[in-house]
Amino acid sequence: MSTHDMNLANAAGASFRSDLNLALVALVSKFSSATEPADTWAYMWWIDTGNSLVKQRNADDDAWIVWGALDQTNDYFLPYLEGASIKTLLAAKADSSSLGTASTKDTGTASGEVPLNSDLGSASTKDTGVTNGDVPIIGAGDKLPESIIPGEAVKAWINFDSTGTISIRDSFNVTSITDNGVGDFTITWDTDFADVNYAWVGTSTGIGSSVSIGDPFASHQFVGSISIDQTNSLGGRVDRSYIGIIAMGDQ
């Protein structure tokens, strides 16, 4: 940690080199110090170690601009926006006590409900399960109302290994998968589709055949499930170490 006035005075060789080294240390450490540098210049950087802040001198060289905070314990940088940390701003925005202080509009819904159409105040609503003043949080596995996620969004997907004992690596909106035999599987959806006209796509790779492999295709497609066949170029069913299926449509 070092500061320097950046004035390299005439001196004998060793003394001059020592002074120069101190100036270089100040530059590369961005004048890191618990106290403000005595000499300042427009746009210079200063790591304020007393407050763990990253600062830069303004163009007029009469004030410091705070860029963010340094967390030396967890080794991360927290940016500032308009004089406050992003963390503080996000916390304030999530604080339900700050909601409703600006202009508002009556949605015509009861406590804990949100409107499902663009014209607030109409009758179509969905109960969020939260009390008045709370903010609903969408977590893993939660589904948003259709007004937020349109019909063309992916509604279900699965990544599985069909070699040996069939196993699901990961999935969404899938209840189970049934191994009907080599290269023949049935995927059961957790939430049914509205009709059988939903779209789906699949791909596969990995071990399973010495000849070229085609894409998976559907032998039967129902609102609550889909049967997938995986074949090689000769038409024979094969198992594959990676098969991925996604489905889209109304539910």
Structural class: mainly beta
Shape: elongated
pLDDT averaged residue by residue: 78
Largest sheet: spatial strand order: 1-2-3-4-5
Our measurement of the CA-to-CA distance between the termini, rounded to an integer number of angstroms, reads 62 Å
In which range does the helix fraction lie? under 10%
Contiguous uncertain segments of 5+ residues:
96-104, 116-125, 208-212
Radius of gyration: 31 Å
What oligomeric state do the depicted chains represent?
Answer: single chain
Order of helices and strands: HEEEEEHEEEEEEEEEE
Estimated share of beta-strand residues? 25-35%
Q: What keyword list fits this structure?
A:
single chain, 251 residues, mainly beta, five-stranded antiparallel sheet, four-stranded antiparallel sheet, 10% helix, 33% strand
Structural notes for this entry:
- By secondary structure, the protein is mainly β.
- It has helices at residues 13-28, 86-94, and strands at 45-48, 53-57, 64-71, 76-81, 84-85, 113-115, 125-127, 154-161, 167-172, 174-181, 184-189, 199-205, 217-221, 225-229, 242-248.
- Strands 1-2-3-4-5 form a five-stranded antiparallel beta sheet. Strands 9-8-15-12 form a four-stranded antiparallel beta sheet, with no helix packed on it.
Task: List the topology elements.
Layout: H1 13-28, E1 45-48, E2 53-57, E3 64-71, E4 76-81, E5 84-85, H2 86-94, E6 113-115, E7 125-127, E8 154-161, E9 167-172, E10 174-181, E11 184-189, E12 199-205, E13 217-221, E14 225-229, E15 242-248
Antiparallel strand pairs: 1-2, 2-3, 3-4, 4-5, 6-7, 8-9, 8-15, 10-11, 11-14, 12-15, 13-14
Quick recap:
With 251 residues, the protein is mainly beta.
